[in-house]
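Notes from the 1:1 (GR / supervisor)

We went over the backlog. Supervisor wanted to see one worked example end to end before approving the batch request, so GR pasted a single chain during the call. The sequence is below; no edits were made to it. Supervisor asked that the structure be written out right there so they could see what the output format looks like.
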Amino acid sequence: MSQQQSAAPATATTTVARRRDWWRDAVIYQVYPRSFADSNGDGMGDLEGVRSRLPYLRDLGVDAVWLSPFYASPQADAGYDVADYRAVDPMFGNLLDADALIRDAHGLGLRIIVDLVPNHSSDQHEWFRRALAEGPGSPSRDRYHFRQGKGENGELPPNDWESIFGGPAWTRVPDGEWYLHLFAPEQPDFNWEHPAVGDEFRSILRFWLDMGVDGFRIDVAHGLVKAEGLPDLGGADQLKLLGNDVMPFFDQDGVHEIYRQWRHVLDEYAENEMGPEGPSEEGRWWATGGRIFVAEAWTPTVERTANYVRPDELHQAFNFQYLSTAWDAKELRTVIDRTLEAMRPVGAPATWVLSNHDVTRHATRFANPPGLGTQIRTAGDRELGLRRARAASLLMLALPGSAYVYQGEELGLPDVVDLPDEVRQDPAYFRGAGQDGFRDGCRVPIPWTREGSSYGFGDGGSWLPQPATWGELSIEAQSGEAGSTLELYRAALRLRRTQADLGAGESVEWLRAADGVLAFRRGEFVCVANTGGESVTTPAYGRVLLASGEITEADGEAKLPADTTVWWTTA
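Structure output shown during the call:
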């Protein structure tokens, strides 16, 4: 018998209860607003565009929407350089648009998580402009890291730190002092030892909580506190140490007191009411839900990541170790075990993610040989990459904990690796020795329709050029198409709501499997993933719920092609 994908009937009663800890097994969808949907035809996505597409996200089956920054910003780093944390940038709309989006999302049973950027501001922020104007020794400069330079005339940076985007992490101003920026020069780092900084951000949290947001994704959560005295790191190629070693500007223990204070603020707020009472027509309960913090924390080990999600701090932390793991059964099992073991003592859920706005899409990463990192410039084998991406997505969605989906991955979108240099906007691309600077490839606006000037993104083209292949990968082209990647995601997310053991718990029972194969059980649910390049035969564990590729079953056995994941139920 041949099997590819099936799903529970739409009328099945969901196992999702009305509970405050919805985030423990939530599927959270990342929207990069400038590339999601354009409502006014200016070629740039906006909040009204996101609002108009919320029904699509509800029907996809996600629990929450994480919005990348839409604050007032000069856009030196796509909005991660914030000039005003209480205003919406005009390119995205205004506060009324944000309010309407939050209200509509709640009416549809979707939660809204907004990005917060506390490590640095824009150089156009009122505080930084005042610091420049008032000069050396002014109180305003104490809110940032201003220092005298080294050398006979202060002509050398205060220390040897390198910017994540390349070059020195210091820029000199006309009066001779230098200021610290771990990212672009337009993004000066706050000095979190100054009490005004903490006061300001607790006020910002309350502003958006009063607007009704359900949580915050904390950008560079590991970077707020720097080692005392800002000591030299020593040596060149410092960026190779990121996420692999102790750094004097990342993952300092002092950040945890900041998040304990923030948790007190968050816990002051009651949960938001989500959607209608009782089950929807789709058998889905809208739940009241507590509000949450999610950390973007690059740390040397998953054990260090666990420090951010202790009971009195944050709720979730991105699992970058998992994102960086090759499509290899042995490596995947190691990182899965370490993640679950690290989270268990602190009582936090594991999180799983394959793509986001800062890395090459996993359909392209898996199309290339392993070991090339998370920013890749070659398209690789598209067919291989898509096959592996589909299998990897089913594996991710089967693991206990919360999963993150980056916009367009449900379409199997590849990275756009051949963007002309003149259209690129990633600041790292223009700063020599930093990150590769090819993040634009995963930020190309997504396709909604087969045709149109921007494949349904908007009426006025798109801010980054879209490939000619986008139409056949569009939501319109894949909707209702048996075997499409979009329908695979829809079926998987529907099953997560109807199968009690999918996404639940804090452990898995590993089953014996051939080399290159992962197999685990949790309750009545079994997942088997063949990461190898050849077909394998496994036991047929029960009734097939879903498969990323075509499998065959006979005489109690199942034949899985290369790069295929299958879900079974033993019930």
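Supervisor's comment: Confidence is low (pLDDT under 50) at residues 6-18, 277-289.
Batch request approved.
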